[in-house]
Amino acid sequence: MVASSVGEIVWVLGIVGWYVIRYPFERRAKRVRVVTNRRSPSEIVGLVSALFGLAILPGFYVATGTPEAADYPARWWAVALGAIIFASALWVFRRSHKELGRNWSITLEIRERHALVSGGPYALVRHPMYTSFMLMGLGQAFLLSNWVAGLAGLIGFAVLFFLRVDKEERMMLENFGPQYRAYMERTKRIIPYLY
After folding, report:
1. Which of 3, 9, 83, 85 is in Cβ range 3.0-4.6 Å of 139 for a Cys bridge?
2. CA 117/CA 123 separation, integer angstroms
3. Quick check: is 194 in a domain?
4. Residue 192 forms part of a structural domain
């Protein structure tokens, strides 16, 4: 089996794993009443960009091989590194969901009895779910030996992050006030100790 095929298989398994992790939290979240909703057109653009870059475009590439002109030779070391990074992304993704519990939402929402979560991965970064998306995009870049499909995940993540994170932090400041400000002072956004 060639490295490019293994990379594609690992990517598909990673996406399936992502959905398996997310699905039960998505179902549970629907049962908790939303008290504040900050959905906006820019947030929808960010979510669609992330979905397109992390799933739709690379899925199309894996299924069809298009755009073939952007292919480059796959390397076993890159596939191994991509698998480790993607597995790390899934671990952070699951831990983030577990810590958030009933507070989780796919959009900018405050739920009934919403609590500020600062344990687990939230002890190091304020947005570990974005950290997981960044790691997924990076893993995808190593797993898929195609300049377009491989890099689409990082681009999709970046669009989501930059359209949404400031709004999310403003919403949390409005809801939790000084408690969230103190939390911001002791944590980084998405990369522990750096940013």
Report:
1. 85
2. 9
3. no
4. no
Crossing angle, helix 128-143 and helix 147-176, to 10 degrees?
180
Helices (H) and strands (E) in the chain, counts: 7, 2
Distance CA 145, CA 68 (A): 10
Show the CA angle centred on residue 153, arms to residues 150 and 154, nearest 5°.
100
Give me 14's structure tokens.
Answer: 């990673």
**What are the b/e assignments for 7-28, b being 16+ CB within 10 Å?**
bbebbeebbebbeebeeebeee
d(CA 49, CA 152): 9
Question: In one letter, which amino acid is 48?
Answer: V
The CATH number that applies at residue 74 is 1.20.120.1630
What is the spatial distance between Cα 1 and Cα 126, in angstroms, rounded to a whole number?
Answer: 41
Residue type, 9: I
- Which parts of the chain register pLDDT below 70? none
* Predicted pLDDT at 36: 80
Does this model's pTM top 0.90? My answer is yes
CA 7 to chain centre: 19
Give the Cα separation of 76 and 34 in Å (integer): 46
The pLDDT score that the predictor gives to residue 37 is: 81
Q: What pLDDT score does 21 carry?
A: 96
